[in-house]
Design goal:
Layout lengths: L1 H22 L6 H6 L3 H4 L7 H25 L9 H48 L1
Helix pairs in contact: 1-4
Length: 132
């Protein structure tokens, strides 16, 4: 349940972040100004506006959420009690599958044994005829 909540939160934060970036006013020069040596247009007087601060906070939140998800998934986070029934059901199906395969193997072994016993009496009279 926690993973689903974190995934949903990442999606919401990313959509808000996209919206914040799109509604910000364009700076003069764009990326070309960053490489052209014009520092004031990149970090000018409007650098502390509310939209910029909100973008920075949302970006930080996005990275923290992604890091938390990576840590939880990387360490094999187990499903919570809400999904415990599903986990038990899956493990029960695995046990049933193993038991079914074991039963099929036993049946095949019995069939092979029955075939061997059926052929064995037929071989005995032939051996007697060869001995005479």
């Amino acid at each position: 349940m926690l993973l689903v909540f974190l995934y949903a939160l990442v999606v919401v934060v990313s959509l808000l972040l996209i919206g914040l970036i799109l509604i910000q006013p364009a700076k003069s020069g764009g990326m070309g100004a960053a490489f052209g040596g014009v520092g004031e247009s990149v970090f000018g007087g409007k650098a502390g506006s509310h939209l910029t601060k909100a973008t920075v906070w949302m970006t930080a939140l996005f990275f923290v959420l992604c890091l938390a998800l990576a840590v939880l998934i990387g360490h094999g986070f187990k499903v919570e009690s809400g999904d415990a029934g599903l986990e038990k059901e899956l493990s029960a199906k695995k046990v049933e599958t193993v038991e079914t395969k074991a039963a099929e193997t036993k049946v095949e072994a019995k069939k092979a044994e029955a075939k061997a016993q059926t052929k064995a009496p037929a071989a005995k009279p032939a051996a007697k005829k060869a001995a005479k």
